[in-house]
Write a structure and sequence with these properties.
Bound molecules: tryptophan
Shape: globular
Structural class: mainly alpha
Number of helices: 20
Oligomer: single chain
Helix content: over 70%
Distance between the termini: 46 Å
Length: 452
């Protein structure tokens, strides 16, 4: 793993776009709005943005710097810096393997919606029970899940990432433009104002430890942090690229798209279902239930719907491909199996786990783990438990083992590190303490032991 020749991104723009391409996916368009709706709207948005410019900034800087310094991906990078700590890389490596299967189930739902819109089913999709009717079946959701993960596996097998990157450069800007259009339309619908207020004005009485944990989990998820991905990306970054400003740009890009997605979906929830706690707390189904209703009222809504689901599918595919690729390369490195066999192993494993998530809304509907359905459970374990643990260990590692100066020197190779003090304070003190407090309180909360 360590002796391969690393190719690099061509320059800063190449790096920022590639990292943003990994970051922007279902996390922004599907996951962020439903969490924001559920956890109090404005207060969630505020906490999220505060965390992004503090925690997010510090962790992303640390991960990219570690990658660029060592020229290795997670497991190797931690080992190269300090042998005793290579276990952090191993825990980080498990996370994409848990995310990939359920990510593909959601990807399957997006594919189904695209198909419905293309085949003239836009009106039906706007119906109240369309979504629940669909996911509670056995065969159909599994069919679309297999289609989605099948395409992902094929692309990884054929290694056409280069083409994907080229297409992303065209599709991602279109996604931004389309998101702005739909968001503006959504906000202007009669009755949307209440929703805009809910989304933008923080209500401090809705604040709790769970809000912060959910926002933190979302931050890691959305920015592909705390799972070694950004270390790998950093290892491809050239030494003369400005690391600090690249981090800011990736964060702005990623948070901007998530913000717009919230603006598309949350006001629409108020228009069509009222701002009741049940309507806002819909969880994973929110995007699928609300957006078709928006498209139904929109002029040329079917065309916009087709374009929208196509672009979301695309964003989801680019992310699932890099998730798949990450897991395959770990399996390849660790088992010495061939790439093809590793692909097969990852495929079989993901199908097995994904089937549980898919069936969890249908025939396995009454099976729950700590009160959660399979999909929510996998989401909870990876985003709310494992990622904070990896983030915590990374902070300790950078703050006390290799010391912040290792990262600072790497950032300062070509420019002054403007937020150096902030970085040090966060990584050494603020982040580790907060992560532990929040993790403990929310895990206790999930098991119903203790409520804040
Ligand atoms: N960040 C991606 C999103 O917002 C999801 C994701 C998490 C991801 N980890 C990843 C994508 C690793 C690629 C690689 O949807």
């Amino acid at each position: 793993m360590s002796n391969e020749n690393r190719s690099s991104f061509t320059g800063k723009i190449g790096f920022v776009l590639a990292a943003a391409g990994s970051a922007v996916g279902l996390g922004n368009i599907w996951r962020f709005p439903y969490l924001a709706a559920k956890y109090g709207g404005g207060i969630f948005l505020l906490v999220y943005i505060l965390l992004a410019i503090t925690f997010g900034f510090a962790l992303m800087t640390a991960e990219i710097a570690i990658g660029r310094k060592t020229g290795l991906s997670a497991i190797g990078a931690y080992r190269a810096l300090n042998k005793k700590y290579s276990f952090i890389g191993y825990i980080a490596a498990i996370i994409p393997a848990i995310i990939l299967p359920y990510y593909s189930v959601i990807g399957g739902w997006v594919t189904k919606y695209l198909y419905a819109f293309v085949s003239g089913g836009a009106g039906a999709a706007a119906g109240d029970s369309y979504f629940t009717g669909f996911i509670s079946q056995t065969g159909e959701p599994i069919f679309w899940f297999l289609a989605f993960i099948g395409i992902t596996a094929l692309v990884v097998l054929c290694g056409v990432e280069k083409g994907i990157e080229k297409v992303s450069k065209v599709m991602m800007p279109i996604l931004v433009v389309l998101s702005v259009v739909i968001a503006v339309y959504s906000v202007c619908m009669p009755g949307a104002l209440e929703g805009v207020k809910y989304y933008l004005l923080p209500d401090f009485s809705k604040f709790s430890a769970t809000t912060v944990l959910a926002a933190m989990g979302q931050l890691f998820y959305s920015m592909s942090l705390a799972m070694g991905i950004m270390i790998t990306y950093g290892s491809y970054m050239k030494k003369d690229v400005n690391l600090e400003s690249s981090v800011s740009q990736i964060e702005i890009f990623d948070t901007g798209i998530a913000f717009l997605a919230g603006l598309m979906i949350i006001p629409a929830v108020f228009v069509f279902s009222g701002g009741t706690p049940e309507a806002l707390g819909k969880g994973p189904s929110l995007m699928f239930v609300t957006l078709p209703k928006v498209f139904e009222t929109m002029p040329a809504g079917t065309v916009v719907g087709v374009a929208f689901f196509l672009l979301v599918l695309f964003a989801a595919l680019t992310s699932s491909i890099s998730l798949f690729e990450t897991v395959v390369s770990i399996v390849c490195d660790k088992t010495k199996l061939s790439r093809r066999l590793s692909c097969l192993v990852v495929f079989v494993f993901s199908v097995a786990l994904g089937l549980l998530s898919s069936l969890g809304y249908g025939p396995l509907g009454n099976v729950t783990i700590i009160g959660l359905q399979f999909l929510d459970f996998f989401d909870f374990i990876s985003n709310s438990v494992l990622m904070p643990i990896v983030a915590f260990l990374t902070c300790i590692f950078v703050g006390y083992v290799i010391k912040p100066k290792t990262v600072i020197e790497e950032v300062e190779l070509n420019a002054k590190f403007k937020k150096k003090r902030l970085f040090e304070v966060i990584i050494k003190y603020v982040a580790p303490i907060c992560i532990v407090l929040i993790l403990v309180s929310s895990v206790l909360d999930a098991f119903g032991i203790f409520k804040i």
